[in-house]
Amino acid sequence: MTGTPALPWRTAWIVGASSGLGAALAKLLDGRVGTVAISARSADSLSAMQAESKTLVAYPLDVTDADAVARCYRDIEKKAGGVDLVVLSAGTWDVVEPPEIDPAVFKKSMDVNFMGVVNVLAQAVPGMMRREAGQIAIISSVAGYRGLPKAAAYGPTKAALINLAESLHPELAAKGVTLSIVNPGFVDTPMTAVNDFPMPFLMPVDDAAQRLLQGLERKAYEITFPRRFTWAMKALRLLPNAVYFWIVRTFVLRP
Ligand SMILES: NC(=O)c1ccc[n+]([C@@H]2O[C@H](COP(=O)([O-])OP(=O)(O)OC[C@H]3O[C@@H](n4cnc5c(N)ncnc54)[C@H](OP(=O)(O)O)[C@@H]3O)[C@@H](O)[C@H]2O)c1
């Protein structure tokens, strides 16, 4: 813990920590939190991160496997003590272009992006509510604000997370548990590297992780970045459907 001050968590668990936003956040927490448990499927990447770190500990995991999530959570609590920060960053993104509607793609999106979160909440929420302490951040997306072209599989999972967080927040808050929803715009990660369309205000991943950490420290309910883009996306929610669809046709689809 040299130079940078300690953070207010003893045991953090970052799910989806092998790359992108989760990995960048793990590096920011390293050495400033007693233990940072890092999970994802890529065991080799997690081990490499652990080897180069002060306080990162690898717990490989597929979030779609509810039993494995339960075992992993018990393992972390046994070795590192009660988890007081959970960050849910695991996610998957597939382009959908009509007329092709492949149910398998939609199911994978829902299984990872939505049920993966539910599987982790099922473990973390009861203990936190019992202890009347703890913090959880769910990484959703501005793609959950309104339907976007190509995002017919991804967007609904993120809209569902926004609704899930809104639904749970009051009862968790009443028991001293902080629940945040994180709605990023475009961030430069392996997930967006495959995109062949313009990504306005694409943010470097280290800047995005800093903004995420600042939001967590503030215990903000909604954490968004980059704000110029996310606020514009939020304003689109206020438009009548006909105007919204005209904007999408004119500026996004552009024949
Ligand atoms: N990048 C953006 O512009 C952007 C914008 C808005 C929201 N988001 C959201 O931010 C979060 C992080 O995305 P990212 O951009 O950092 O992408 P990323 O680099 O692809 O990271 C995704 C992470 O999720 C993990 N993951 C995927 N499937 C998993 C599974 N079944 N079980 C456990 N872990 C799994 C991946 O690791 P393994 O492959 O090793 O399992 C990886 O660590 C996602 O929820 C994404 O939807 C991203």
Automatic annotation (TrEMBL):
Ketoreductase domain boundaries: 10-190
A Pfam family annotated for this UniProt entry: adh_short
Name listed for the protein in its UniProt record: Oxidoreductase, short-chain dehydrogenase/reductase family
Similarity field: Belongs to the short-chain dehydrogenases/reductases (SDR) family.
Species per Swiss-Prot/TrEMBL record: Methyloceanibacter caenitepidi
SUPFAM superfamilies reported in the protein's UniProt record: NAD(P)-binding Rossmann-fold domains (SSF51735)
Lineage top rank: taxon: Bacteria
GO cellular component, one term: membrane
A GO MF term: oxidoreductase activity
Keywords: Oxidoreductase
InterPro entries: KR_dom, NAD(P)-bd_dom_sf, SDR_fam
Keyword Oxidoreductase: yes
Lineage of source species: Bacteria, Pseudomonadati, Pseudomonadota, Alphaproteobacteria, Hyphomicrobiales
